[in-house]
Amino acid sequence: MPTKNKIISSPAHYTYGEYQAIEVIEDWKLNYHLGNALKYICRAGRKDPSKKAEDLGKAIWYLEREIQTGCLLSD
């Protein structure tokens, strides 16, 4: 039986492949908007396959927010 900590930090839809999204986000030092976009792309449809398009839409929203706020220029 999984421990409570394992359920919080590594549910099945977080762990696909060798790396978790959070590890890549931290290693690449992505800001909030880009990190969230990456997270939604990586996990798209894994928790609920019927919501893959919704997850990708959220990623697009964060990318558009990144562009609108001009964060790309300050990185």
Please give a structural write-up.
The mean pLDDT is 83. The protein is 63% helix and 0% strand. The longest helix has 17 residues, at 52-68. It has five helices and no strands. With 75 residues, it is mostly helical. Helix 2 (21-28) packs antiparallel against helix 3 and helix 3 packs antiparallel against helix 4.
Report a brief summary of the structure.
With 75 residues, this protein is an all-alpha fold.
Please tag this protein with its features.
mainly alpha; 75 residues; single chain; 63% helix; flat; 5 helices
Residue stretches low in confidence (pLDDT < 50, at least 5 long) are none
Level of helix content? 55-70%
How far the N terminus sits from the C terminus, by CA atoms, comes to: 43 Å
- The average pLDDT is 83
Looking at the chains present, what oligomeric state does this protein adopt?
A: single chain
What structural class do helix, strand and pairing data support?
mainly alpha
Question: How would the global form be characterised?
Answer: flat
SSE run: HHHHH
Largest beta sheet, briefly? Answer: none
Please give the count of helices: 5
Number of strands: 0
Q: In percent terms, what proportion of residues is strand?
A: under 5%
The whole-angstrom Rg is 14 Å
